[in-house]
Amino acid sequence: MSDALPEGHRLRIYSDKTALMDAAADYFTVRLGESPSGSRVALAGGRTPFPVYERLSAPTLRNRVPWKRVRFVLTDERCVPVTDEESNFRMANEALFAPLGVPTDRLIRIPGEDSPEKAAEKTHKLLLAWAQRVPLFDLVVLGLGNDGHVASLFPADAWLDFGVRLAVATAHPSGQPRVSLTPQALRSTRCTMFLVSGADKAEAVRDALHAPEASPRHPARMVSMGSTLWLLDREAAYLLPEAWRTEGEDAAEAAADS
Ligand code: 6PG
Predict the structure, then answer these.
(1) How far apart are CA 25 and CA 158, in angstroms?
(2) CB of 178 within 8 A of CB of 171?
(3) What sign has the CA pseudo-torsion 57, 192, 69, 128?
(4) Does residue 170 line the site of ligand 1, with CB under 6 A?
(5) What is the pLDDT of residue 247?
(6) ω into 135 cis (within 30 of 0)
(7) CA 185 and chain centroid, separation
């Protein structure tokens, strides 16, 4: 196991989940507030980011970002109807898109109601249009499963060579069909932010950060090759070497560094 943080990766560790969510929202506003030409963001699904998205759309923060110049896509989707509580779009729409009034022409919605293959093909084609400008994204936000998956790339999938595909059909180990942006798409970004909370993620955080570069058994290292900021609470970080623990002060300073 390497004892140095992977090159390009930085950590900010916060005392608890509330402080982590506050810092992540601040980081967003600094990263996206600075882009006069507009930004493209890939947003994590799951439960962790919901409070961050709520903070961003709240009156206190919403005016810090030129939202009318931000385009969005989710990093992955469960193949369920958009009304299903499992839907990542439903989560992000409730917390962010609807409160901000994001129009459909600034959103790539992965059509989870379609078959996984059809939804992946539609998403791939829409992302290809974005790929006229590289990198594809200005910011990619990712969570981390306690099995080490990111987006809907599960450790077994990470072996797969998706070639030039930007979105593919995958499946959760439970069998739930998914669509995920590929490592190739997720790597094409100015910066990556991992947002991880809770002791149940601590082993996955430790293993990802100790894994070799681009390790196929660790999707987190397949999708982040450049400037990567890990925003963690103490519970998620407790298995990391003491020497790595930069107590999370001002996330804006972290954003300015990345
Ligand atoms: C998904 C997510 C996934 C998520 C992790 C962590 O659709 O499940 O995109 O990659 O980020 O599973 O999920 P929690 O934030 O709910 O712990």
Answers:
(1) 29
(2) yes
(3) negative
(4) no
(5) 60
(6) yes
(7) 12
Name the nearest CA neighbour of 144 among 94, 51, 207, 96. 207
Q: What is the CA radius of gyration of the chain?
A: 17
Whole-angstrom distance, CA of residue 77 vs CA of residue 89: 7
* Among protein residues, the one whose CA lies closest to atom 11 of ligand 1: 143
Ligand 1 pocket member 88 (CB < 6 A): yes
Token pair 């950590």: residue? 11
Give the separation between CA 228 and CA 60, rounded to whole angstroms. Answer: 27
Q: Residue 153: CB within 6 Å of ligand 1?
A: no
CA 142 to ligand 1: nearest atom:
11
Ligand 1 atom nearest residue 143's Cα: 11
Q: How confident is the model at residue 33 (pLDDT cuts 50, 70, 90)?
A: confident
Asked whether 65 lines ligand 1 (CB < 6 A), one says no
Do 24 and 252 touch, CB atoms closer than 8 A?
Answer: no
Domain boundaries of the chain, sorted by first residue: 9-257
pLDDT in tens, 216-228: 889 999 998 889 9
Instruction: Please tell me the class of the 9-257 domain.
Output: alpha beta
CA dist 60 and 113 (Å) reads 34
